[in-house]
Design a protein that fits this description.
Shape: globular
Structural class: mainly alpha
Number of helices: 19
Distance between the termini: 28 Å
Radius of gyration: 24 Å
Number of strands: 2
Largest sheet: 2 strands, antiparallel
Strand order of the largest sheet: 1-2
Helix content: over 70%
Order of helices and strands: EEHHHHHHHHHHHHHHHHHHH
Strand content: under 5%
Amino acid sequence: MNEVAADGIRLAPVTGKARIDVLDMLRGIAILGIFFMNIPFMGAQLQKVFIAPQTIGWSPADSASWMTVQVLLEGTQRGLLELLFGAGMMVLTRAAMSPDGPVAVADLYFRRNLWLLFFGLVDVFVLLWAGDILHIYALAAFFLFPFRKLAAKWLLVLGLGFALFSAAQGGIKFAERADLMSRAETVMAKQAGGAKLSKDETKTLTDWQKAVDNRAGRNDEFKEIKEQEDKGHAGGFVPYVLYNIGSWLFFVVQSLPINIAEAFCTMLIGIALWKWQVIQGGRSGRFYLILMLACYAFALPLRYVAGLEQQSMVPAPRTMWITLEFARVATAVGHVALVNWAVKSGLGRAIFAPFKAAGRTAFSLYFMQQFIGLWILFAPWGPGLWGKLSWTGLYGVVLVVLALQLVVANLWVKAFAMGPLEWLWRSLSYVKRQPFRRPVAG
């Protein structure tokens, strides 16, 4: 069936020259880069990833590569996708910006995101990826549509709401931890002098020891996680399935409202950037250079300090509790500015041109990463790599996989209009079989 609105506007996917190349480049960079963040949770013990990254491997190359990913990539590829999701909504709903815009646009928008939710659940329960972002984006997108006509400045204010909330919570946690640490040091000095401790002072030492144990992963929660993890990777299909789905239930479901709020707020910023002509390349090269330098100057030092704080095994207060979300968003916007600035030149366009194909097949590439990681490389029946690779080994695997995906994507788009899962998603969303192969010239 064809989607035609009452006013005669025909709804159709954005194709050919109507596509914005820089958005495809950014999407390709984001979907490939996200594998750097995902692979530790596929190929290493979670306790080491969360608690002590040094124990995965800490040669000079390991520590340098880990810190590079933490500063430049961690959370920002997710952030890029969230910004692009907001901008993508503006592309999809461009016919519904007037008060009498066609209802069919809203119908298509919500149907598209219902299918995205379905694909996200397939990623969780079939491909067994507990870290799936698709279902989170779909749920966030259900709240996004009414904000499409809000002024950009208010979208930015609302979009920064989650960062402000996170900073406030982090500030409270920072103050509480600093107070506990100070009191514990005083009590331990008193205890060392042979003085008798009061009931409150004894409780202070108990609370501090609990914080020390939690930081070292010596609590019941992490013991249970390690037990389930070892059982899931010991061999056998059923334990592996139960472990991975259990990880999603444990880590993701209980934090789903927070994850949705983060994605929603970043999507609002993406809409603001679209309205300001920032994300799609509508500003000058000078503008993008200044924006990039400003974002990086603000965010990268904060993220470097956060990386140092994560290496410490002392449960001291961390500035990253306050700065993390602001720095994540600023770095993602800095990446947007970098790519837009670069493609203003012929050399920059040539460097980033291969990522257009990855952006046009991003949905398929994302699922391919899960299949390669969870069903081949780190599966119990795989080559036995789980828990064996250092950071350089894990990131080396990423580079090989991403190089393969770039080649596959660029070869694929020579013959096909879109990736196979993109084709399926569009066909389901438009309730009509979409063109798959590229038209033959002439």
